[in-house]
Amino acid sequence: MNIYTIIILAAIVAEFLLSVVANALNLKSLSKELPGEFEDVYDEDTYARSQQYTRENTRFGFIAGTFNLAVLIAFWFAGGFNWLDQWARSFGYGEVITGLIFIGVLVIGRSLLSLPFSIWSTFVIEERYGFNQTDAKTFVSDLLKGLMLSILIGAPLLAGIIAFFVYGGQWAWVWAWLAVTAFSMIMQYVAPTWIMPLFNKFEPLGDGELRQAIEEYAEKVDFPLQGIYVMDGSKRSSKSNAFFTGFGKNKRIALFDTLIEKHTTEELVAVLAHEIGHYKKKHIVKNMVITVLHTGIMFALLSLFLQVPALFDAFFMEQMSVYAGLLFFGLLYSPVESILGIFMQRLSRKHEYEADRYAANTIEKPEEMVNVLKKLSKDNLSNLTPHPFYVFLNYSHPPVLRRIEEIRSAWS
């Protein structure tokens, strides 16, 4: 074993063990006593089901994570990466096409290995708790559409990145950075109108009490209301959600049909106010800037490690290549990515608080936000008492009790 083998192996095992510890603490923090804040929403049976749902998903996640780690290590130390590389090279194509074959086979292999877990999660666990609305036809259709998008969008992007590093010289990382940034911007613009409708229907919110209330609120806060859509989330799950996507003329707010079905007009305006809060606080722009800077740093470091033979030796490779280097650098970079992920989760939680405060300060009935959060927690069987360490590692949104406290403090 060389130093890169030790670093990468230690990193992926440490990340797995950290996850195990966090999950164990999270399960231990489950409280049999329902928090008083939720006594008007939960009954004893629903609260017990929410805790069992957390336990079952945690156990399932541990099994899936253990399997994935074991497969990676076995494939690695059996010389699987080198064998696959030699097989891909045997077709006699250049490095770009060979790289697409090499990475494509790995992606397909990983997808096939994860398929049974996806099926079990969807049709057993989610079905058991009354969430699953997906039928076999929709499930298969989603897989095929995802494969189609990978071929039509992902493959050209990957080919471009490989080509930049093969032919771009010392500034290849800059060209790759600019290309990926441009691609991301374009996707932000086209995804709402071209890609997302492949998976869900988006219907403009019709005239009526809800639309009138939304328009009045948008006018009050000077929000350019360009698109409020109802998404058929019930096609796959009974869970509820809302989100803001896109920018410019293509930005839109999407409300799940399940959300509209289960909440009052005042509560839905509160949800919308939260999403507008993200826009007003420029959270989307801030996240995009951070992502662009992070991508640039990552490509700059990648350009250095592509020239390090010891990195390839760590995976028993006979020959160096850009495409294999992309994968191996990703594994080497994983500890940095995990640390950055923790900071990004913290930033995301901060943004959620800010959006909550904005909504609480701009709607006429801030308590409606509290009602929405409580109902969503019940409908989605959320864990009401997550362990702080688990939140620190994994939560992009603050725990619901903390959000409620912050909302009340914003307008009390």
UniProtKB/TrEMBL annotation:
Q: Which family does it belong to?
A: Belongs to the peptidase M48 family.
Which keywords fit this entry according to its UniProt record? Endoplasmic reticulum, Hydrolase, Membrane, Metal-binding, Metalloprotease, Protease, Transmembrane, Transmembrane helix, Zinc
Q: Record's Pfam families? A: Peptidase_M48, Peptidase_M48_N
GO MF, one example: metal ion binding
Q: Which cofactor does the UniProt annotation name?
A: Zn(2+)
Q: Where in the cell is it found?
A: Endoplasmic reticulum membrane
Q: Enumerate the spans annotated as CAAX prenyl protease 1 N-terminal domain.
A: 27-201
State which residue ranges cross the membrane: 6-25, 60-84, 96-125, 146-167, 173-191, 288-308, 320-343
The protein in question is named Peptidase M48
- Residue positions of the active site: E275, D356 (proton donor)
Q: PANTHER family from the entry? A: CAAX PRENYL PROTEASE 1
Q: Does the keyword Calcium apply?
A: no
Q: What is its main location?
A: endoplasmic reticulum
Give the membrane topology, semicolon-separated if more than one: Multi-pass membrane protein
Q: Which residues form the Peptidase M48 domain?
A: 206-409
- The entry marks the following residues as binding Zn(2+), namely H274, H278, E352
- What is the free-text note on the cofactor? Binds 1 zinc ion per subunit.
